[in-house]
UniProtKB/TrEMBL annotation:
It holds the Pfam family YwpF. It comes from Aliicoccus persicus. It comes from the Bacteria. This is YwpF-like family protein. InterPro entries: YwpF.
């Protein structure tokens, strides 16, 4: 069993990824079964209504592990539990690590161009969908 700190986490909703602003997060590889990864993040209660619709639903997740400079890892899994903990909720995902098609960045860029994005909007959407952000 191996565990790592979660640095950032993005969930896919429709065709866009959005970031969960969490206070603490851990990801554990149990190295057992078809869905060996467990991701737990602590969020403010205000996220509960938005996330409940994902309970037991398949979802794409991008997670940066250990350092902000690492590339995000792509997981496919389910939101399996939401627990109230004082003014926070504990959100637990279970899933598997997916390897991305090496053509994914090009396919994504073509999709965004087809949707009419250009200039800085295109760059921002591209970064958001890759699960990266500008480093300042």
């Amino acid at each position: 069993m191996k565990s790592f700190n979660v640095v950032s986490i993005h969930l896919k909703e429709n065709t866009e990824y959005y970031e969960l602003n969490f206070s603490e997060g851990i990801i554990i590889n149990s190295e057992i079964g078809e869905d060996p990864w467990l991701i737990e993040v602590s969020l403010k209660n205000s996220w509960k209504d938005r996330l409940e619709k994902y309970l037991n639903q398949d979802i794409d997740i991008l997670v940066k592990i250990t350092r902000p400079t690492n590339n995000p890892a792509h997981f496919v899994g389910k939101l399996v539990d939401i627990n109230d903990v004082e003014e926070f909720i504990s959100v637990i995902f279970k899933g598997r690590l997916e390897t991305r098609d090496p053509n994914y960045p090009v396919d994504l860029l073509e999709e965004l161009l087809d949707k009419g994005y250009s200039g800085e909007d295109l760059v921002d959407r591209f970064r958001q969908n890759l699960g990266t952000r500008k480093e300042s």
